């Protein structure tokens, strides 16, 4: 068990280093830099080449890529995300509240999605090839297939414009309290809930169908154990083990994959901040958001591996 933990921690750290290197190099190949966006075309043409070169030197834009990559990785090792090129503001201060808001939105979605998906997935698997299974499978397929920005737009037209039950856009401040932000975001949560429940239900249903038709469940039934105990105490854990990694990756992807939904509802999360940083060519902010999202994915995958090790003795032995 200890060797497996050490191996997975080492693999996670190596993955983060590789991702950080890729993110840095990917942002370096983008055309232009922060100075090109800050100065207008007229200012650039009127500025002497010596002055322009001096400004690039002051901002560190003329240094070799290898040196800047080394400084970038060294800063990440010390949890330092750097500062913006023009305003010299700490990047951690810029993305702290947007990242908090996106994490809050993802956590709220999962808080409702997981129990509902478990209930629907177990019900559909237990009623395999009957009407309940057909309805749940069909609705989950539709909910998973429809893009979230389409679902969000439909909900805005229906519940915000036609019925005026909820606000169409978020009016809460980025640094506002979590409670006020959630109170202003029912349509955002509902949009993410539809897709999340659909995906997790389909994922769990497949595992539950295999578990309920397995030999060990048949032997449990022959021993006279109550059916509810077989389903919830034995079949559900067996079905959850192979789906934990996929569920963990989906939970992590909620944070980095809700950019479009945030833009639809003007939600003050990392999506808004990422678009702003791209428009202003704030490379350090783009890198910080990408690395933070990647770290969340790697962490969730690591936690899923630990859960599998704890639940499945065969994994520990191998």
Structural write-up:
The protein has 318 residues and is mostly helical. The protein folds into 2 domains: 13-77, no CATH class; 97-317, MetI-like fold (Orthogonal Bundle). The protein has 16 helices and no strands. The chain has helices at residues 2-28, 34-38, 41-46, 49-59, 65-77, 91-126, 131-145, 148-162, 178-183, 186-212, 215-222, 227-257, 259-265, 270-279, 283-311, 313-317. Helix 6 (91-126) packs across helix 10 (186-212), helix 6 (91-126) crosses helix 14 (270-279) and helix 7 crosses helix 10. The protein is flat. The protein starts with a helix and ends with a helix. The model has no long low-confidence stretch (mean pLDDT 83).
Keywords:
16 helices, MetI-like fold, mainly alpha, 0% strand
With helices defined by DSSP (H or I, 4 residues minimum), what is the helix count?
16
The percentage helix is over 70%
Shape: flat
Q: What structural category do the secondary elements indicate?
A: mainly alpha
Which stretches are low in confidence, meaning pLDDT under 50 for 5 or more residues running? Answer: none
State Rg. 24 Å
Kindly give the count of domains. Answer: 2
CATH fold-level name of the largest domain? MetI-like fold
Order of helices and strands: HHHHHHHHHHHHHHHH
Overall CATH architecture of the largest domain: Orthogonal Bundle
Kindly provide the name of the CATH class of the largest domain: Mainly Alpha
**Overall pLDDT:** 83
Q: How many runs of DSSP E, i.e. beta strands?
A: 0
Terminal CA distance reads 10 Å
**Strand proportion:** under 5%
Largest sheet: none
The CATH fourth-level homologous superfamily of the largest domain: MetI-like
């Amino acid at each position: 068990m200890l060797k497996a933990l050490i191996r997975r921690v080492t693999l996670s750290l190596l993955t983060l280093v590789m991702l950080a290197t890729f993110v840095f190099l990917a942002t370096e190949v983008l055309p232009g830099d922060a100075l090109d966006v800050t100065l207008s075309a007229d200012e650039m043409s009127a500025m002497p080449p010596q002055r322009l070169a001096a400004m690039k030197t002051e901002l560190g834009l003329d240094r070799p890529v290898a040196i800047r990559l080394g400084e970038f990785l060294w800063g990440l090792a010390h949890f330092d995300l750097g500062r913006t090129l023009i305003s010299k503001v700490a990047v951690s201060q810029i993305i702290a509240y947007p990242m908090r808001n996106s994490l809050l939105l993802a956590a709220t979605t999962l808080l409702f999605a997981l129990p509902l998906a478990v209930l629907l997935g177990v019900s559909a698997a237990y009623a395999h090839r009957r009407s309940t299974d057909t309805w749940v499978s069909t609705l989950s397929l539709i909910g998973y297939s429809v893009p979230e920005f389409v679902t969000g737009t439909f909900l805005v037209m229906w519940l915000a414009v036609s019925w005026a039950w909820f606000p169409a856009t978020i009016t809460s401040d980025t640094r506002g309290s979590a409670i006020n932000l959630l109170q202003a975001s029912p349509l955002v949560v509902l949009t993410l809930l539809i897709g999340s429940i659909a995906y997790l239900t389909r994922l769990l249903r497949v595992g539950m169908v295999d578990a309920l038709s397995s030999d060990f469940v048949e032997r449990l039934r022959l021993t006279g154990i109550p059916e509810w105990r077989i389903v919830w105490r034995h079949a559900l854990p067996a079905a959850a083990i192979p789906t934990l990694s996929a569920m963990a990756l989906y939970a992590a992807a909620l944070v980095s994959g809700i950019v479009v939904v945030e833009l639809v509802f003007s939600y003050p999360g990392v999506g808004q901040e990422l678009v702003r940083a791209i428009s202003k060519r704030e490379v350090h902010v783009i890198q910080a958001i990408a690395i933070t999202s990647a770290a969340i994915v790697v962490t969730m995958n690591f936690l899923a591996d630990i859960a599998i090790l704890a639940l499945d003795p065969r994994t520990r032995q191998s």
